Each structure stands twice: as structure tokens, then as C-alpha cells.
Amino acid sequence: MMKRLFLILFLPLFLACSNFGDGKTIKTAMLVDIDSLNPYKFVGSSTEEVMFNVYEGLVKQTPDGEVKPAIAKSYNISSDGLTYTFDIRDNVYFHNNTKLTPSDVVFSLKKMKELELQPSFKNIKEIKLEGNKVILQLEKKDASLIYYLITPIVDEQTYNTIDKKAIGTGPYYVDTYKREQKLVFKAFDKYWGEKPNVKTVKISIMPNSDTVFMKYLSGELNFIYTVDSKRLDEIKDKTVIKTPRNMLFILGINNKKYDKNIREALNIAVNRDEINKSVFKGLGKLLDKDRTGDTSTLKGMKFELKVPTNNRMYTDTAQVVKQQLAKAGADVNIVPIEWASWLQDVYTNRNYELTLIGFTGKLDKDAVYRRYTSTYKKDFLNFNDSEYDNLVKEAKVTLDINKRNEMYNKAWNILLNESASVFILDPTNLVVCDKNIKGFTPYTISFIDFSKLVIE
């Protein structure tokens, strides 16, 4: 199950789909605004989903869930796993037309470590520059580090203004950004790699999925990449691309507020299959089987369920969960909350009882499993299990992939046995676009690769 969820290998799809459009520009929409123009302030996967077209790291993600050289034209990892050597390309330009230097790479890596963007960066003992080579010396082995090095490299000279003007090295640069309104990308002529076929990408920021869908039907948009499965009947005459989303969609439980008995009862009361059929048209892949047992501990209990309003997946599921818990005698008060407020109240302050959220797929399993470790500063679920912590910690420094997978499988079983959350399903992603748009390539992480699209 977990191998399928986090390390799915599937071939790129080069597909066409149909609707209306002007054939000149990709016109799409996102439900929430980007977190920031500064890549070191990205929080939500929806930001990375589009902004990885603007920024690049030493390596970049591939459709099959691996990484390949990007700003580094090659790299080598020593046999003991402690030394990483990156040979930096000499033909990379920033979007302000200044040439990237190895010094920019060193600056960026030091900034990543200083800001503790990823736990792996704290493990970097030394960063050395030898000609065009950047060498990282680690304190201890870290099987996850290479995957976190998709974190963008920035221009040292313009870093202090990057919150206001994005300066990356990717195939697109930010031409226009109006907060809560729109984001416009233009193809970068000096891009070091394969030049994008589509020269302009216009992204409207629309906080309602129904509005996005209606804009698509009217022809104002020609490419939408997260379609509500309940709208499938309205586009029977269109071609829909279905791809794995690689997401953990969960009913999050604040483990500090509810003990294992309550969490187990919640897992029994929630019917995952019913949610899949009523909200996702049966297209999701269940993460856990539906359970049977005693739910009497829930009788008379009152729960507050904070639900992000940016996606019907959350709001529709909340109604089903409310009905299911009512059958067990519990009362659920649904509290709709805007995404920015959810990030503050739930993700940062951990001020909640129950919530619905989707953890998007990551390149390395550590990025998902660490969310439930007690030492992780963003463990808003407040799960605490020493055996689980030790397994995840040991897996991170284990270079043998088979042994790592064994550890993660044991960790997954702990999450299930301890009812750390109600693990519901992995939704199927639905993409719809103009019939003359081809080249959509699904990735195992949240990334819409506009550079691969072709408008015929």
C-alpha cells in the first residue's frame, strides 16, 4: 500500500483532451493564492505545484518519483553517504539575466540550513567550493537529503528583494502577480534546458472550485488540473485525464485532546467506502479498510471539525463525516475556515479538535512519515510514539532501500494500530483541457509542468 502511495512509478502520459480555447495561451486557475514569491517561504503544495516552473534546485523531480540533475549538471554521493559533490552548470541564468555562479549555490545552501527549511539541512556539517564544484559534508548519513535538494537555488544579489520580485532559473519567469487575483508566467529565453513550447501561462486565483469549473465550461479557461469528481457527469462529452494524486486524505485528530480509545472509535464510525462513493464517485483508493467494533464511547460527545473552504473535497466530506458520527451518537459542529486561517489556527497553533486535510505526495517517504514524529516542529497532529519516532529516525539514515521500506511499513502499521488519524483515501486527480493541448505529464508530487505542454 505505502509503496504504491509514495513511490508510484508510472510512465509520463502525453495526452490530449477537449474543451474550448484560443489556442495561444494556457489559461488555468488555482484555488488558493501562492504563499509567497520567496521560495524559502513556501508552505502549501499548491504553491510548489506552479512555482516549481519558476524555481529550480540542484536537482529536479522526474515523473517517476526520482530526481535528476538540474542546476547541477551531475552529482556524486560517496560510498559512505557522507559526501555529496555537485558539478554546477556554467550556462544557467537567473530571470534578471545575470549568470548563476557556484557562489549563489553556496549562499542558497547556507540559507536553507540557516532557515532550517528541512531537517536534513541541519545535518550539513560543511559546504565547500572548489572551482565549479560544490561539496557537502554531512554529520551522518541521510538517505533523504538528495530529494530535498529540489529546494530552489536563489540569486544572492537579489535575495533581499525576492519577496517582491521572484528571481529564479526555471523555464518560466513571473511576468505579473496580483495577490488574490492572478499570476502570469512567461517563457524564459535564456533557460539552460529545453525551451517551453507554451510561451504564456495565465493563472487566475479563484477560491471556489465551482467557479473554476464554470469558467472552464464558458471557455474562459482552457486547462484545469483539479476537477471535482462530482462534476464528471457534466463533462461526459469531454476527455478527462485521470492520474494518481498520491495523497493522504485524512480526518486529522488532535492526539493531545483524544486518547486511543476515542481515536479508535472515530476510525470505526467513519465509513471510508461511503465517503469514496458519495464524494469521489468511487474513484479514490482507500488507505485503510473500514473497521467494525464498539463506538459507544462517542455517544454524547461533541466535536468541532475545522474544514478548509477552498475545496469541495473538504466541505463535502465534512457533511458525510458529520452524518456518520451522528449515527454513533456524537454531535459534530462543522467550522468552515479559509485556507490562510487554517494554516494559522490548525497547522501552526494546533488549535483544533478534528480537521480534514490532504497530505500531498513527496519524493521521499521521510517527508510524509516525519509529520507524525513527536520531534517534528510541524507535527500539528500531536502524535507521540517512541517506537514510531525511532523507526522514522533510523530509516532516514539507512541507505539500503529494502531495509528502509521495511521500517516505513512498520511505521505505517503503528499509525494504523494507534489510530493516529482516520486515514481515508488517495483521491484520483482529474485534469481537463482543450483538445489542442497535449503533453500533460503527471508527477508523483504536486507539480504541473507547464513546460511540457504543447498547443497545436
UniProtKB/TrEMBL annotation:
Q: Show which residues constitute the signal peptide.
A: 1-21
Q: Which GO terms describe its molecular function?
A: peptide transmembrane transporter activity
Gene Ontology BP terms = peptide transport
Cross-referenced Gene3D superfamilies? Dipeptide-binding Protein, Domain 3 (3.10.105.10), Periplasmic binding protein-like II (3.40.190.10)
Query: Solute-binding protein family domain spans which residues?
Result: 66-285, 294-375
Gene Ontology annotations for the cellular component aspect, listed alphabetically: ATP-binding cassette (ABC) transporter complex; periplasmic space
What keywords sit in the KW lines? Signal, Transport
The record's comment on protein family reads: Belongs to the bacterial solute-binding protein 5 family.
Family annotation (PANTHER family): OLIGOPEPTIDE-BINDING PROTEIN APPA, PERIPLASMIC BINDING COMPONENT OF ABC TRANSPORTER
Protein's name according to its UniProt entry: Solute-binding protein family 5 domain-containing protein
Organism per entry:
Sneathia vaginalis
Write the lineage as a comma-separated list. Bacteria, Fusobacteriati, Fusobacteriota, Fusobacteriia, Fusobacteriales
